Every structure is written in C-alpha cells, then in structure tokens.
Amino acid sequence: MTHVHGGPHLRAAILAVGDELTLGQTADTNSAWLAHRLHQLGILAVEFNTVPDNLARHSAALRRLADVADLVIGTGGLGPTADDLTRPALAQAMDDHLVEDMVALAQVEAFFAARGRPMPDINRAQAQRPSRGRSLANLHGTAPGLWGIVNGVDVFCLPGPPGEMKPMFEQQVVPRLRPDPGRVVRTRALHCFGIGESDAATRLGAMMARTSMPLVGTTASAGVVSVRLRFEGPATPADADAALDLTERDIRTRLGEFIFGQDEDRLPSVVLALLRTRGETLACVESCSGGLLASMLTDIPGSSSAFLGGIVAYANPAKSALVGVDPHILEIPGPGAVSAECAAALALGGLERLRADHALAITGIAGPDGAVPARDGVPAKPVGTVFIARAARDQPADVRRFEFPGDRAAVRRWSALTALAMLRFHLAGLPTPKLLRQVSP
Amino acid sequence: MTHVHGGPHLRAAILAVGDELTLGQTADTNSAWLAHRLHQLGILAVEFNTVPDNLARHSAALRRLADVADLVIGTGGLGPTADDLTRPALAQAMDDHLVEDMVALAQVEAFFAARGRPMPDINRAQAQRPSRGRSLANLHGTAPGLWGIVNGVDVFCLPGPPGEMKPMFEQQVVPRLRPDPGRVVRTRALHCFGIGESDAATRLGAMMARTSMPLVGTTASAGVVSVRLRFEGPATPADADAALDLTERDIRTRLGEFIFGQDEDRLPSVVLALLRTRGETLACVESCSGGLLASMLTDIPGSSSAFLGGIVAYANPAKSALVGVDPHILEIPGPGAVSAECAAALALGGLERLRADHALAITGIAGPDGAVPARDGVPAKPVGTVFIARAARDQPADVRRFEFPGDRAAVRRWSALTALAMLRFHLAGLPTPKLLRQVSP
Fold this sequence. Notes:
The structure is a homodimer.
Chain A: E1 11-17, H1 19-22, H2 30-40, E2 44-51, H3 55-68, E3 71-75, H4 86-93, E4 98-100, H5 102-114, E5 128-130, E6 134-136, E7 145-150, E8 153-158, H6 162-173, E9 183-193, H7 197-204, E10 215-221, E11 224-234, H8 237-255, E12 259-262, H9 267-278, E13 282-286, H10 292-298, E14 307-313, H11 316-323, H12 327-330, H13 340-353, E15 358-364, E16 385-392, E17 398-403, H14 408-427, E18 438-440
C-alpha cells in the first residue's frame, strides 16, 4: 500500500501500549473511546492492537499499523519512567532520533510550577520528540503527546490516562484529521430490553444479511440487546440518513415496545428522562445490588432532578432500622430477606421514607455464597435468585422473582438493569411483559 | 518462525472480534481477563488484537497471530446470526471447510430444551466446525467454542459473553495448555495510595531500569499507584520467588506506609479485611458519589460481615429526612450541602442511624454542572470540589477538602477511593497524611 501524505484519513488503526494491559492488570478503555469518536467524525477503525512496554514490538506495531491504515493513534507509554518507551519507539518507526523540545520542556516545568513543586529530574525526558516530529501540548498532565509520520501515515501518540488523552485528542488531533468529504459513515443503535438476542434476530430475519446496506447486527449484555445499524459508502449524508431512517422504521415495527432507547440512551438515562417529563421522583432500596442501581442513576448528569436518593439496606438490621421492614418477614419462620414479601416491604418503605412517587427495591443472592436450601414446602433459592419490586404511590407493588446467570458482578448488573426496565415499561404506559430470566409469578 | 505442534505454549496472542468493539460501542474486557489467567499459568500474552466482523480481516488476523505466538485465543463471533463469522474465519485460516458437529448440535438443542423452548432455526449454524477442528461444549449458553490448528499453532475460539467465555476457558482450554516447565513467569503488584506516580518513581530510582530483573514498573489510576514486579526467564519457581521477595522488601522500604495491599487487593477489600480483623462495622453516606462507594464495597464477596449499609442522600431533603442533617447547614446563609459541616453531619448521622463503628461520608460537585460561585467571604467551589468525612464512635470526625480532576465519573471514583484510603490509614493505626488533590485543611 502506498500513501500520499496529505490524502484523506479513511481507516484508522488504534494502538494501546503497556505491560499492565498485556498482563491483564488494567482494562484498556481508550481504544473503544477513540474508535467511537473517530467514527462520529466519519473515520472507521479497522483494527485495535495492544503491545507490551517493549521497544521492538512497539515500533514494529507502529510500522505494521501504518501499512493497514492511513491514520494511527496510540495511547500510553508517555510517562516519565524508564518503562515509558513511546518516544524512542516512534523515533525508531520513523527512522529518526530524539531531540529535546524547548516548548514542551517549558510546559512540563510550568505544569509543576502551577502546583507549587519543582519538576523532578525524570520528567525532563517527557519533553523529547523525534527530530522530524511534533510535541502536542498536554493541559491536564505532564506528558506531552507526539505527532509523527511513519511511511507517509500520520501517527499520533497520546497519554494513557483518559483524563489527559481525551482532551488532547479533541484539541490536538481532531483539527488535524481529514475525513473523506465524499464518503459517509453513519451509525445508529436501538436498545431493547425484555427480548433475547436469538428472538430479536429471528424477528429481524433477512435484514441481518451481511450484504444488506445499512448493515444490521445485534449485541447483548446483561439483558440489554442492542440492534446496530451502519451505513458506509459513497453517498450524501442525507441519502445515508434516509436509508437508516427506512431501516430503523422496519426494525421498530418488528421489535416494538422492547425498544427503550437509541444511540447514547441507557436504561438509567431513559428512566430519568421519563420521570422528568412526568415531573415525578424515584427512590431505590437495595440489598444485594448494594448501591449499584443508585450509582448507575447518579452517574447521569442532572439525575438529581428526578432521583431523590436511596438506601443500601445490606445487613438485616439496616432493613428494619432504615426502611422499616417488619422483623417477622426477616426472621425464620418468616419468608426471609430474599423473598417477595421483603422486596415489597423495601419498595414501600423507600416510597414513604423518601416521599417519592416511585420506588424500586432489589433483594437477592448475588453469590458466590448465600444460597438458601429448601425447607418445609419452601423451594430452595440458588445463587442468582433475586426479587425485584416496583412500587408507585397508591398502587399495589409489582414484585417478580428472577434467576440471573453469571457471577456476583453479573447478577448485580442484571438486577439493577431489570429493575430499571420494569420501571421503564410502567412509565411508558406499557404492560410489563414477562422478562428474561423471570421465573415467577 | 516454525512451530512444532505439541511444543510448549510460551507466548499467547489474544484476538477479540466484533464490529461493536472496533466501532467503540462495547469495551473488550475478555482480552485482559484471558491475559491475566494465562499469566497465572506461566504463559505471557505478547499481543492483543481486535478486528471487526469481517471474514478476510478475521482469518488474516488468525494467521498473523499464529505467526507471532504459539497459542492464539479468540473471543466473539460465535453467535447464531449472520454477522458471527468465527466459524468460517477459522476454517479459512486452516484451509479447511465447515461440517456440522452432531454432538454440538445435540448440545445446542438440549440448551433450548432445558428452557422449554424449541431451538430456533438460525441456531443450527452454531453446531458447525472446521472438518479438522473440534467443538468445545458450552454449558452456559448456546455457542459452542472451537479448537483448530493454524500453521502448527493451537487456536481456541471462545464465545464473547464473559459468562460463557470464562467457564469454557477453565474447563476446555486450561487442560489443553502446555506451559514450559523450565521457564518461569511470576508477577507481583504493590498498590499505594497517597503518593503521586512521579514521586513513587523518584523513590524507586534505578530499580525501574528496563534491564533490571525483576522488572519494576508503575501505573496510576484515580489516585492508586501500583508498582508492578515481573520475573521472567529460565529459573526455578523458588529462585524467581526469592528474587521477587528481595525486590519487594526494597520497594516496601522506599514506599512504606503508602502501600495498602498487593496483587488482588483493592482498597475496598483491604478496608473490609481490616474491619473484620477488628470485629468492627462500617456505614457510608453518599451525596455526589451516589452509591458508588457502597457499590464498591458490596462488590466484594462476604462484605456483609463488616458493611452494614448506607444512605444515598442525594437530594437535600433526603440529607435531612434520612440522615438528620440540620436544615440550617443546607440552606443559605449556612455553609451549604457541599461543605465540611455537611460532610461531618452526614458521617455522624450515618454512624448513629446504622449503629456502626465507622462511617464515611462524601459530598461534593461531580459536575459537569453545579459549580458554586464565591459569596461574602466564602471562596468559590469549582466542579471537582469534594468534602470527605471519616468518623468513628466517640472521636471527632476527620474532614478534608479535595479538588479532584477529570469528568463526573473520575470525580466520583477519586471520591470513593480517597474515602476508603482515609479509613485504611486510620484502621492500620497510621496517621493519615495530606492526600493527593487535598486542598485543606
């Protein structure tokens, strides 16, 4: 492949660097973020690659990726320490040597000065760049980025910490990108809850053929099935949008009320928006999910306009003291903390104590321990057994029993999302169907 | 590179497949998990690669990775739909064709039968395998895995959902691995809180040289600085452990009380273990972190033995109604919800209402909105301003003001971890130093 430097950026490759990544100690979230942003800008990521802190592998990866893409973006390896090798790796891939950049050095020194500290000696290395490359200013940390040309292809190297990488991408990389003005990449996603991936695919049928344009695919995670549409090719943006509109309408006919949102929508944001529209409020009371549901809701900016707060009633005394659950429910021979009765009492207690219009309550066995054996006509409760109650003022609570799959984290995630899905059906004025993994009533 | 099939597995490459990954819609957590597990088994991951749902790129990646590693593990692309291409991609990389596996078909049918449903037609494709390959049973979903040989190298293809991938790896792949008995890979990590990465590196000095064995590197995330040690090479396990012991002792001398744990230890698990040792209990009261601290604690199996529960006092009325904060603190001209006074009142209210031995409280401005302008001698509170209070029975609360960097998620994460770090210093009997990002007192 030959590249004319200055041609359009159509296909990107993304490189993440660090022993902590290839040793599995840290999850790489940068590559997905970059791919998503590039895609919004009309540039398709065709490959991610991750290599350890190893000069030879790192520079070889930069060269190889410059051969499969016309834009390479790397993250990591720009710190001040001896295991940060992006500077020499880029120089090697460019057949270049390193020089000290006076402006970059001044910026690193200024970063420390602003915090009232002298620059440690080791940070001086961060001001190095390939002699034919450029330093990229970092306003949020000490590591300047780098920009160089490898085999005619633009290579941008950004710091690993997302809080530094993201603003540097926006400020230093985006203005230098050249998406093809004649080519359009447009995506859309429709998110469903309450239907399995196989059933969704069956309903979509031939729409999912690999030869269709827009392309239609599905992904599933903890009960959420996302249908993803992609238009890619030479077209005007208006034509691409029209094709997506047509396909979206068809998908909506086939999946109907299971679709709760699209694109950036998530169940917490959709539920909060529905509450806001109705001018109503929510409280939640959690046992086995232990604050995860509240955390998902408060992760959304502006959630305070509809979410009042919650109670993590983890130990049984907290269920009584904080939420007013009758101790007879919790103690043998009562039904116990993991029961429909307890879920309903938690939801009603949350409604009342937070004076909310709606409440969600979750109690169950997230595992790995805690399974309850059968006794006297009461069937066993295996790990994954969860009761969810949705209550609204002056209405009977909707309480359901589930058996969720997977480990502790998966059971907690399924629980929180299923609770939100129950409320979403209710707020949207739809009957709540029997949900995935629901075992009764 | 030539490979003799049946030789040891020394270097692994990990491939993740899916448009949702390269489009940045979904984060890949499988690769890091696999690398970590392989490493524990003495096999080093030398590269991760991610490609879209594209037959040519997929089979080319399998071939290339079989050339840089002697073991390839792939995830994803084994679903029933038309965009699941791992079966033909592996066949193509093997120069083979697909056949239907009778046993695999029976297993897929049995999976549906156990759930009282007939197998949808499209799931039949999941029983296909290369004619010279093997199907791997999936006890947790419909997608059988695949095992084939590409260029003399073992290639295992596992399903994308972690709940199916992980058990299949343990049950079907691990017994087939052949780590080199003469070569040792051993890692260790020491986790610090309260010291910056540059300062830690300065204290470690020449230990971090790339020529040292064990190799020593650092990573940083939301205030946690991890020092990672790796011994790799021909040695007995005992010699490798002795070398790591020596280096660890040296690191402990240099970083002392900042080290809160090692390896799998996380601040929540360390704090819970310290509480358990002392037979004491914890409650937490959260405003801007909105349940994240409680969720981090309850994510740990067995947390119920020390964590009683918490209150997410998000809206101001909840702070008064649920925790008893004096409304005069919350209302102008009082100091307001984001203040040392409010943090202390939340912590003391949590102690009392949950009858706990210790309480942590967090109140602040996670952003992006909510910054408080200066008024009458009270300085402004920018986004990222957070007050954290740690209280114990019959002792004055320790209340500190921070300005945390980054977006909403980062501020919430820093807040929760810093609160845990304050409690950890206290429980360990150490004076709590001025922490990173602390601005007063």
